[in-house]
Amino acid sequence: MNDETRPPANEEPTDHLSAGGGGWLILALLVVVLALLIDRYRSPAERPIIPRGDLSDAEKTQIEIFNEASPSVVHITTSSLQQLSDFSVTERPEGTGTGFIWSEDGYIVTNFHVVRPSVKSGGHMFVTLADNASYNAEIVGYEPAYDVAVLKIDVGNRRLKTIPLGTSSDLQVGQNVYAIGSPFGLDQTLTTGVISGLGRELESETGRIFDVIQTDAAINPGNSGGPLLDSAGRLIGVNTAIYSPSGASSGVGFAVPVDAVTRAVPDLIDYGVNQRPVLGIDPFTDSQFNMLKRYEGFPVLEGVLIQSVVDGMGAAAAGMRGTRIELGEAKSGDLIVGINDRPITDSASLFDELDRYKPGDKVTVTVWRDGKQVQLEVVLQSASNR
Fold first, then answer.
1. How many structural domains comprise the chain?
2. Catalytic residue among 72, 168, 196, 224
3. Average of pLDDT values for 79-90?
4. Looking at per-residue confidence, does 54 or 26 come out higher?
């Protein structure tokens, strides 16, 4: 090599394939080849894990509702006493259900039909909280007309978590709802759906329940007595039954409206019976009346229409009329439009007005009958006398 082609002594070689640069390139190629070989010979059962990203807003809402309410939901097991002979009694399991904490000091609300066998036979009831703490429970009171019962557990100084109370008078078909319960003994189970109907009547084991909420949220055996919640996490009903020939959820479940529960439970806790004053009628629900108005041509568009009158109660004694069949045609019953000169526009205003009185009080009920107003004197009686 002559001097013209030899690099100066103080300059580095400029060949990019020098030992250093070529080494890194070779290493990168080896890594790529190794990755290809690993991918080629990987087991077909192995799959890459893909990050899911953020939860949707709907999922976050459901999770929050469950996390807030589930500590207030309890699992109930019952037993009954069976007389085998004059000298022998045995105790047998009856079933399971759900309930929820009504007050911090241990009052529990559930369906009456959940605890009915134990109550009637003198059997035992046990309440298991969300943290698996279990307590013996005593019956405090029950109202079969609403399929509601109140139990009490002794939790000492412990303060229990309750569910916020909502209202059921302003519910709308299509609202999202959430049910928490113990279907088939599997406690702390969440199901979701919508309100699919309002103002239903339900024939229960204990009688007819009015103004029931219908939902397509799955309600299976064991869900009875659990809470039905709205999208704000408030209690709007108590799950009570399903409509299903097979006994499993078929998309038609029912819940007692919370407005009825909040009227009954305080009396059950204080007196053991529902002492609220009643007229002694079974009214049509507001939604049913709204439908009837389209066909009957009521000149009065607000009030509470009587479906039937309960024998032996104040309304029957005063001569109030229920809806009846005359000459093959349905004839509307009395439409209640006022009590003691205060207007009655719907079921809520009727119950609110009756709550101003006590059993034994006499009130003047104004009804619309045969195209004119009629006033009747009715002695109120306790709901427990029904």
1. 3
2. 224
3. 65
4. 54
| Identified catalytic residue from 70, 75, 113, 168 | 113
In the DSSP assignment, the letter for residue 280 is: S
Final residue of a domain: which of 232, 254, 271?
271
Q: Which domain holds residue 235?
A: 176-271
State the catalytic residue, choosing from 70, 75, 147, 334.
Answer: 147
Q: Is 147 a catalytic residue?
A: yes
Please indicate whether residue 118 is annotated as part of the active site. no
CA separation for the pair 93, 222 (Å, rounded): 14
Using an 8 Å Cβ cutoff, are 106 and 232 in contact?
Answer: no
Q: Which residue has the tokens 């205060």?
A: 342
Same-domain status, 77 and 137: yes
354-375, pLDDT tens digit by residue?
878 889 999 999 999 988 999 9
pLDDT tens digits along 123-162: 889 999 999 999 999 999 998 888 999 999 999 999 999 9
